[in-house]
Specification:
48% strand; 11 strands; globular; 7-stranded mixed β-sheet
């Protein structure tokens, strides 16, 4: 079992930056590809991005390409989501998730473990 805990959410002005962290319990973090998803009020869960086991590969959703960056530190069992040039439409609860799937997938059902989410609010 893997437990994931997100942190770093909060209130930020449009155009600003925020960095989210997700720390995993256990010794097998490096065997999971990790993803970030988000869900805005009244909307479906949306893929934000994913990172491979060793961090060498990444994939992003179209709405965040060029603005968000995913990285990971396997020694610290942590994955990060650096969010720059934030827009009002980035307001959502952000979730990290882990998957044994070896490819970089945007499919939420492929992820086995989920954190509880951290809220990000972008104000004008």
């Amino acid at each position: 079992q893997v437990q994931l805990v997100e942190s770093g959410g909060g209130l930020v002005q449009a155009g600003g930056s925020l960095r989210l962290s997700c720390t995993a319990s256990g010794r097998t973090f490096s065997t999971y590809a990790m993803g970030w998803f988000r869900q805005a009020p009244g909307k479906e869960r949306e893929f934000v991005g994913a990172i491979s086991l060793n961090g060498g590969g990444t994939k992003y959703g179209d709405s965040v390409k060029g603005r968000f960056t995913i990285s990971r530190d396997n020694a610290k069992n942590t994955v990060f989501l650096q969010m720059n040039s934030l827009k009002l439409e980035d307001t959502a609860v952000y979730y990290c998730a882990g998957t044994r799937y070896v490819g970089l997938t945007s499919v939420a059902a492929a992820y086995n473990y989920w954190g509880q989410g951290t809220r990000v609010t972008v104000s004008s």
